[in-house]
Amino acid sequence: MDSDILASLNSAQSDAVTSQALVLQVLAPPGSGKTKTLTARVAHLIARHQLKPWNIIVCTFTVKAASEMKDRIQGFVGAEVAKQLKLGTFHSISLRYLKQYGQHIGLDKDFGIADTSDSKAIVKRIVKKNDLTIDATQARNRISTQKAKGIDCEQFMKGAKKGDQQEFGQVYRDYEATLKASNLLDYDDLLLRCGFLLRSHPQCVSNVEALLIDEFQDTNNIQYDLMTLFAQRQNRITIVGDPDQSIYGFRSAEIKNLTRMKEQWPDTLTINLEENYRSSGAILHAAQNIIEQDESRPPKTLQATHSHGLRPILRKLPSATGEATWLVSEVQRIQKMTGGLLQPSDFAVLLRSATISRPIEHALGKAGVPYRMIGGMKFYDRIEVKLIVDYLRVISHPDNSEAVARIVNMPARRVGEATIKSLLEEARSQDLSLWRLILDTVQGRRRPTTKLNDPSMKGLSIFVDVILCGHTKLLSSQTEAVILVDLVNLVVKKLSFQSYLTKKYPEDHEARWTNVEELIAQAIDASDPERLQAMLQENALPTIDGLEQRTASSLDDMLSLFLANIALTASTQEKAEQDGEKLQQLTISTIHAAKGLEWPVVFIPACYDGSIPHSRAEDHDEERRLLYVGMTRAQALLYLSCPIKNTKREETSLSTFLLQPGVSGFFEEHGPSIALSSVTGLATTLRRDCPSTAVINKDKRTLERDEDNYWSVNGEEPPEEIAKWDYGKGGGKFEPTRPAAVFSSAA
Length: 747
Ligand code: ATP
Ligand code: MG
Prior knowledge:
20 strands, 46% helix, alpha/beta, 30 helices, disordered C terminus, binds adenosine-5'-triphosphate
């Protein structure tokens, strides 16, 4: 098996995979096979060095990247072995440790996770309550920044100057107190507390033999500390990264961590990779030209292994709507041109900020091109899904006062906003959870000072009834007679949710109901005893002598695991992909969330000043790197575009990065985006690992188009047949999946 692993690598990659160094850094540009090398090293450690997969931690930054990585490792070692790895994002790995050993640092068994909207709501409420002038969203981000630096609220207060800093410090302090009272951890806490756990109970990680981290350039200090803690036993550490792709400085990522690592482990071996296997030469050169505008950056070598291909296209369109229409027509044209070789899933639209997706979504919808969204636009943020999930969260964890406040009048039950606010304050002042106050009130054990009229009292008791019903189900399920999906169905039924949606959203209730059905489907999936076992097994950490662990088995645990997974999963699509279901959909993503991924055709719209570089961005070098990351996602075709007027009908100016001297020479600016007549051959492999595609190159077959836009191959085969074409002695059928670099220019 080991030789198979190494056979697919070049010699520098092989050196990295087989290196005996205890601490290894692989630093290399995009598309040079860093992730490939990292995954191969995992496989090599298992196959050659007989490391147990459950003693290996593999870390990356996004849920999507983690699932891609798992797929790749699975390709080497098989699904059974891959499943046993401790593989995930820093957050999901930390969550695992905390769920299993959290009791040793005083964490309650049922701690919940405050997701981004919970955190925002808490900060907003604090700001409002204290009548502060501070901006709530900014304050929330600032809290995160402080946490990322490892500065807690008390430390901050000590150093705080009068005025703004004091005000913020107070918000920080109240925020922490609210989380504590509600038994919640926010995303930053997951990492911090895990660090605390591993520091005080190092035996939790005594079994860890190897630690591998992808996209290391984006680690912040807390993550660096976690790395050190995971690797306490002086075991193998491998990190891969690229300083040119550091794009999380705004979230306190520390590029200095690369040198810090070398200082901490002076024997660190650094290996560079210098060949790009992803993009056509033309795309690579254009991208390099952009990154080289940063003169402070050390020069680097990067060679294309693919042929030159077509120059990237830079287009100006009259408006954002015009840009979207053009973009979608290009998608359709290319699909037609290539006779079905390219599926919608071979296209990606990458955005600097998620907020500008609307015109593109609209145009795609109108043209009937299926699409999915990753990063920033989340399934679980959709109102109807969030509502059901909130009910589940409250059933699992009634002390989450934020969630209770959100749903107590949803669907509307005549409990007014002012009443909720007053109840919440009353609960706070008496050190009670909101749920406790409402429950006691409805059950006549307490008389609140908040005035409640009859309809509100009735509304509250309906709410209490739903939660108690759910709770009873949860308790009665200790005998495992009830499964998760029953609980979801119970909530949906109790709320008469389908008719509620019909009434409240007459225009799009069907789409909303589909989302609820999707959630139910996920619950069914998670309720399957085998799936649950697998989930528990995948989440389980090995038993360690002398350290008590929790075991999850009841519905209560199942629900808490399900919700924790929801809190950490960005979208259903990602979930579906993790489950092996590849969807034929175009991807819309933020550039940030597209890190590490690749597509044959990439569009980057809205390339104007204010969008990229973003008007609120402080660090222009980071914005440039962001554009670089976006461009280097493309394999065969890259489109950059800019509307002359933005959505607010203001005149735009082309991104300063694209206006620098010499840049235009790397792009095709005018004329039809791709002259069909110039596409005369398949530049490189249509699908790298499909033997039949090599035959195309060897035979120098050419693809040609007739007046009707039909393709032929050496003047013979019509395009529809390409997919079905059997090469006979060439070996195997040609399957048109994920072509690497389809086009080359006539030259
Ligand atoms: P990024 O910095 O964008 O994350 P990366 O360095 O991690 O890029 P990979 O994603 O590992 O790059 O590889 C890019 C593409 O090149 C992948 O499709 C991978 O399969 C392919 N590739 C990498 N190494 C080789 C090789 N030696 N031979 C053929 N293809 C390769
Ligand atoms: Mg990578």
